[in-house]
Amino acid sequence: MNELINSSARDVVTRLRKKEITPSDLIDAAVERIEEVNGVVNAVPTLCVERARERAGSVSETALLAGLPILAKDLVDVAGVRTTYGSPIFSDHVPEASNFLIDKLESNGAVVMGKSNTPEFGAGANTFNEVFGKTVNPYNTALTCGGSSGGSAVALATGMAWLATGSDLGGSLRIPAAFCNVVGFRPSPGRVPHGPSLEPFSPLWTDGPMGRDVADVGFFLDAMCGYDCRDPLTYDSPLKSYLEAGSEPKAPARVGFSADLGITPVDPEVAAICAAAVRQFEGLGGDVTDECPNFTTAHDAFQTLRAASFATLMEEMLAEHRESLKPEVIGNIEKGMALNAADIGLAERQRAALCAGMAAFFKDHDILATPCVAVSPFPVEIRYVEEINGKQLTSYVEWLALTYAITLTGCPAISVPCGFTEAGLPVGLQLVGKPRGETELLRYAAALEAETSLSKAPIDPKLAV
């Protein structure tokens, strides 16, 4: 493996600034690695190498990312680059303009070199679609990598990129990070410009950074965040960089841990691994409690608000392209179209109560910790988890409850690698911070990362036996 591939994003950017290497050197290394491993895992279906080389030639080494090549999730438009959203409806779509996130990243010296695979329109947490097929887990290629930012997580885990974008509605950044032993960060709504969108005031969808360790994720968030007049939720970047926060571990004084948030069954092995990881904070002087806000209304609130969002965004597409949409997407849209004002009003009141509960919890806790996912990676042919510990689930997204419950609160959340199952599969711990509390959350995550000491080096895919 090229030594550049093994380096962190911040280390290669330091070398770019010193002119020890060039963006072309990094593009060459990434393309070589993609050619080596992508055929096995199918994480990077689209490359735009010539565009990357052209743009790299005009990037100053003083820019924040200094010409670092990145991957963009195939839900975000990149001008002049095939962008399919994982849908056969858009299989040949080439947008003329980039979305807000790509504009921000390129203004800060990022060079997009390709697109990472995603489920159709990001619906579901198993990365497969009718355009490019399935993306598999690098720790066992018979298993799912999670989703919907699955291609990004796999590319990072196998060394095809130093940084990759993700997006998150019900856990799409956090779940694949947990399944692939990388870090995924869902920031507070408005922290990162999102759009253009038919729902510019919605706090459900966020874009965010993915990387191999906490400091790299903080570094990437620096390049993403900031005010954009086109997104009414955005606000100015903080005075202190997120890279600095991610490089300064700090133990939380008080952590609340719940293996299930009181709302879902959880695989016992996953729960035990996460409970052991949380106890690392006790060794740093922190107090770990079993206190947790009341999330019992999260299932109904999330599914209503999510359905309403799908109807807003995709009602016209359903009318025009029903035959080309997967059944889960059709179901989401139709559920949203069937809602009435009373349904949405109840969901909004439930969300308000969840936010109030989190505010009360954070009066005497620094973070809430949970497993990121209730199960470990499962066979990729299974579209979604239907039962856990013998309990039948009621919808195709219910197995994502530990992440979508947090989405409703608007709090930032990060998935940090915390261990492996006996089968050698990664497990991620979800840490949740106060609203707009990204700085402290990164410091707490860095403290946990330092204690667990899990390897961050890229791996070669482990073929299913």
Overview of this protein structure:
With 465 residues, the chain is α+β, with helices and mostly antiparallel strands. It has a single domain (3-299, 341-452), classed as Alpha-Beta Complex (Amidase signature (AS) enzymes), CATH 3.90.1300.10. 37% of the residues lie in helices and 15% in strands. The chain is built from 16 helices and 17 strands. It has helices at 3-6, 9-17, 23-41, 49-56, 100-107, 150-157, 174-180, 214-224, 242-246, 268-278, 280-283, 298-321, 327-338, 341-361, 401-407, 438-452, and strands at residues 46-47, 69-73, 111-116, 128-129, 133-134, 136-137, 140-144, 163-168, 183-186, 206-211, 254-257, 287-289, 367-371, 387-388, 391-392, 413-420, 426-432. The strands form five sheets. Strands 8-10-9-16-17-13-11-12 form an eight-stranded mixed β-sheet, with helices on both faces. Strands 1-3-2 form a three-stranded mixed β-sheet. A two-stranded antiparallel ribbon has the order 4-5. Strand 16 and strand 17 (426-432) form a beta hairpin. Helix 3 (23-41) packs antiparallel against helix 4, helix 6 (150-157) runs parallel beside helix 7 (174-180) and helix 12 crosses helix 14. The longest helix has 24 residues, at 298-321. It is globular. The protein starts with a helix and ends in a 13-residue tail after the last helix.
Summary tags:
eight-stranded mixed beta sheet, 15% strand, three-stranded mixed beta sheet, alpha+beta, 465 residues
Number of spatially distinct domains: 1
Which CATH class applies here? Alpha Beta
Rg calculated over all Cα atoms? 20 Å
The main β sheet shows up as: 8 strands, mixed
